[in-house]
Amino acid sequence: MQTSDADRLLGVTHAAGRRTRSILAASSFPMILFGVLALASAPVAEAWSWPAIAVLWLVGAPLASVATGLWYRSRELEHGVALNASPFIATTVCIVVGATALGIAGRGGPLSYAGPLLIIGLGYMVFARLERSAPVAALAAGVLVSAIALALLRPPHAYTLGVLIFGCGSVLLGIVSLVRERRLGG
Amino acid sequence: MAEVSSSHPAVELDETVHQRVRLGVLAVLMEADRANFTYLRETLGVTDGNLSAHLNVLVNAGLVQLDKRFVEGRPRTWVRATPKGRSTFRAEVDALDRLVTRYRAKVQA
């Protein structure tokens, strides 16, 4: 065979893979939704105490997870291409259960704000690995560093600081992803 | 083809997947868990009949599997790569890469 044919074949192959990867990299909806949920919990934390935050997450996180699943399902039907959902579902369940359990077990102490952030950071690291996404890995690293810093420094309004860091980062990443999705046509 | 030694990457090319559409189908399925017929047709720029023919070749070689389902009352064909399909794709791309690298090295020498 001609080597130029091999070169062309490789080019076509990589282009098909790149297009598919771009379509599958969409994460605007969950990023914005969970970011907004985190940001919404900040005034709750300031106005009430940790049980109110626990209730917000116990109700909000499962609902947001179901909405995210439906959003990915609609994208699958719209575009005709999908990732294996099982590792994403397993990671989401671990984050929701782990973060909520630590939040409640911490009873307003450092474990209640640093613990869930640590779980979220680790979970997002898994998402970054599954999606091969550098921006999601950067957000995960930022959340992990914040969790450790908050646990060590124990500043006033630590919970609010933590959710503001995660919430703003998540919403920002979601908007960037949304712009990219619109450019790709979906 | 000129002289082909046993170490030449061309020897390792797989005749089943060494084709633009079939390699493209596997390239898509290396990134995704599954893709439907319409997505593959649009991504690879082929006709229904052409894609069907190539998918049959891949199915018969055990490289992909088809899953036909009704979604919202309409039949949809979903395609998945088998483990054999994934390993065959990796070997093919590796052989093509080495072939191109070898050629470029010769040109530069």
Question: Topology of this structure?
Answer:
The complex is a heterodimer of chains A (186) and B (109).
Chain A lengths: L2 H22 L3 H20 L2 H30 L1 E2 L3 H20 L4 H22 L2 H20 L4 H27 L2
Helix pairs in contact in A: 2-3, 2-7, 3-4, 4-5, 5-6, 5-7, 6-7
Chain B lengths: L19 H12 L2 E3 H8 L3 H13 L3 E8 L2 E8 L1 H26 L1
Antiparallel strand pairs in B: 1-3, 2-3
What's the short version?
Chain A is built from seven helices and one strand.
Question: What do you see in this structure?
Answer:
With 186 residues, chain A is an all-alpha fold. Helices cover 87% and strands 1% of the residues of chain A. Chain A has one domain. Chain A has seven helices and one strand. In chain A, helix 3 (50-79) runs antiparallel to helix 4 (86-105), helix 5 packs antiparallel against helix 6 and helix 5 runs parallel beside helix 7 (158-184). Chain A is elongated. Chain B is α+β, with helices and mostly antiparallel strands. Chain B has one domain (13-108): Arc Repressor Mutant, subunit A (Orthogonal Bundle). Chain B contains four helices and three strands; from the N terminus they run H-E-H-H-E-E-H. Chain B has helices spanning 20-31, 37-44, 48-60, 83-108, and strands at residues 34-36, 64-71, 74-81. Chain B starts with 19 loop residues before the first helix and ends with a helix.
Low-confidence stretches of chain B: 1-5
Summed up, the helix count of chain B is 4
The value of Rg of chain B in angstroms is 16 Å
* SS-derived structural category of chain A: mainly alpha
- CATH class descriptor of chain B: Mainly Alpha
* Approximate helicity band of chain A: over 70%
What does the main sheet of chain A amount to? none
Estimate what percentage of residues of chain B fall within beta strands.
15-25%
- Helix % of chain B is 40-55%
CATH superfamily of chain B: Winged helix-like DNA-binding domain superfamily/Winged helix DNA-binding domain
Report strand % of chain A: under 5%
Largest sheet geometry of chain B: 3 strands, antiparallel
How many distinct folded domains of chain B? 1
Question: Termini separation of chain B (Å)?
Answer: 21 Å
Q: What do we call the CATH topology of chain B?
A: Arc Repressor Mutant, subunit A
Overall structural class of chain B, as computed from helix and strand content, comes to alpha+beta
Number of strands of chain A: 1
Mean pLDDT of chain B: 87
